[in-house]
Design a protein that fits this description.
Chain lengths: ~270, ~280
């Protein structure tokens, strides 16, 4: 806060002159950066394609409706595959992420200097790569199919579940652990009776949340060949069969809404 | 924790046998429902895993490729495709920045319109509908549509990311505006301020720190997404990565992945630092 003296008396201002200069300079820098980025981005842009975009959009819309409802017969199996990818991928992720979370939490890690950084590295590495990129890699390695999708979903989910779970483990009440230990419990019993009951609600919530996200992500994994309804989406887009694309969008939207409803119900029942 | 443990009653000691061990109460108290759920889960696992077709021949072939890919991480090749990688990264970064700036500029009015406490009902409904539309469509699906409309290249990616930013930021901004301290708005209004002045002095000052934090967070997300939407032709480093994998150049692909992870870590760290200072 600053007060500027003028001949008419003091005027209240929120910032001192250097502060407002710095702020102004920051905004100038942002605008400059934006203009430079925009220039670099649109250097190779063919604007003729952009100017007729409204016509293209109208044309596209005209071709997308009405959806080809009869194509739904061929979508049930891919939809089932999509749900399988998400569910089995989440289960695999739980199996892998729970030990990582215990190794990463400060209060349960066996060695804060040696093991914890490795566990944190696994979590960060998994989190910073999108499931679609994991799928791209795994399809190149394992070949196209459900398995690549399941492992891709699992690899991406390890970081998510691991991070939230280890934060939950770090926030537990140490007195309960102390009480269990005071009864003469061994380390495994302390884990089972002292820590696990405290993190179960968080664990259930995190898992359901991730399952929900995984359903969304698994609908597009097929674009790179990792199974599910995305395969149909890709072949329909590539063959310009827009009425089928519309139906697939509707199917994806319905699946996502259904999964949100299921996870909300299960969450209400469990937590 | 309540178990079936009962305090021993000396009078009837010996007449009845009391449980000597405490047992944890089950999660689902109804026994039949519990076993039905267990059986259902088991059945699903059998059916679900059975549906996964594993081609073992292909897998053993892939094993060797997997090792080569891991080898690529040990010796990433930044040089032989550097021009493509550089072009892809510049596209991704410029796309991220412009999309975040434009997305934030559009989300502010949409967010104000979607706040129940300041917007009239028709505006509220229109803005909420736009937010719901943006949130329910995945980035990659939006990217397919924009590529079909404006052609291949970073402009389609820019439009996709800007559109996705609106759904994210406008929703959170609207919720933040709905949560503000009404007394401050009341005080500004009591001085005789008009609608714009109330917005400027009563609301803006309360939501700005969080808006800055959310914008930086979205910058972070947009970069991650920009690495993906290239797969469907919307520009950025994702296209470069896809090409490298199609050519089986695992060392170049590893170099791209390392760069993506490094940039994500740097942006996450920087945006976390700025957010901690602003909020």
């Amino acid at each position: 806060m600053a007060i500027r003296q003028t001949p008419d008396g003091p005027i209240w201002r929120k910032r001192t002159t250097p502060q407002s200069l710095a702020l102004w300079f920051g905004w100038l820098l942002l605008v400059l950066l934006f203009v430079l980025a925009w220039e670099a981005m649109t250097r190779n842009q063919i604007w003729a394609f952009v100017w007729d975009a409204p016509e293209q959009a109208a044309d596209l819309f005209g071709r997308m409706v009405p959806p080809r409802w009869s194509y739904m017969d061929q979508l049930w199996v891919p939809l089932w595959d999509t749900i399988n990818i998400a569910t089995l991928g989440t289960l695999l992720a739980i199996v892998l992420a729970v030990p990582v979370a215990f190794l990463a939490a400060r209060n349960t890690t066996p060695s804060p200097l040696l093991v914890r950084p490795i566990a944190i590295f696994i979590i960060v590495g998994s989190r910073s790569v999108n499931a679609l990129i994991w799928a791209l890699l795994l399809v190149a390695i394992l070949g196209p199919g459900l398995l690549a999708g399941i492992i891709a979903i699992a690899l991406r989910s390890i970081g998510f579940i691991g991070k939230l779970l280890y934060e939950a483990i770090e926030e537990i009440d140490p007195r309960q652990v102390e009480a269990i230990r005071a009864t003469g419990a061994g380390p495994a019993q302390v884990l089972d009776f002292g820590i696990v009951p405290q993190i179960m609600p968080a664990f259930a919530g995190i898992t359901l949340f991730r399952w929900d996200i995984n359903i969304r992500e698994s609908t597009v994994l097929g674009l790179v060949g990792a199974g599910g309804i995305g395969l149909q989406l890709k072949s329909s887009v590539d063959s310009l069969a827009w009425p089928q694309v519309t139906l697939i969008f509707i199917a994806i939207l319905a699946t996502v809404i259904l999964s949100e409803w299921v996870s909300a119900r299960v969450r209400a029942a469990l937590i | 924790m309540s178990g079936p443990a009962v305090l021993p009653d000396p009078a009837s000691e010996g007449a009845r046998r009391y449980p000597r061990h405490w047992r944890r109460p089950p999660l689902i108290s109804d026994g039949r429902l519990r076993w039905a759920i267990y059986a259902g889960v088991l059945l699903y696992l059998v059916v679900g895993i059975g549906a996964v077709e594993v081609n073992w021949g292909r897998l053993s072939e892939g094993w060797e490729r997997g090792l080569r890919f891991l080898g690529g991480f040990v010796e990433p090749d930044f040089i032989s495709r550097w021009d493509d990688i550089r072009a892809g990264l510049i596209e991704s970064l410029t796309m991220t920045l412009t999309a975040t700036v434009v997305g934030v500029l559009i989300s502010i009015p949409v967010g104000i319109g979607a706040a129940r406490n300041i917007a009239p009902s028709p505006v509220y409904l229109a803005c909420r509908a736009l937010i719901a539309l943006s949130r329910s469509l995945q980035e990659i699906i939006v990217a397919i549509l924009f590529v079909a409309m404006v052609g291949f290249g970073p402009l389609a990616g820019f439009l996709t990311l800007a559109f996705a930013t609106i759904g994210f930021l406008a929703k959170l901004l609207a919720e933040d505006i709905e949560d503000i301290d009404a007394a401050q708005v009341e005080a500004i209004r009591a001085t005789g301020a008009g609608w714009w002045q109330v917005l400027d002095y009563g609301i803006r000052s309360q939501v700005t720190p969080r808006l800055i934090g959310l914008s930086l967070y979205r910058l972070d997300i947009n970069f991650r997404e920009s690495a993906v939407i290239g797969i469907v032709g919307a520009g950025g480093v994702g296209a470069t990565l896809n090409t490298a994998l199609d050519r089986y150049e695992y060392d170049s692909a590893a170099a791209i992945l390392i760069l993506i992870i490094a940039i994500v870590l740097v942006t996450e760290y920087v945006s976390g630092w700025v957010r901690a200072r602003v909020q």
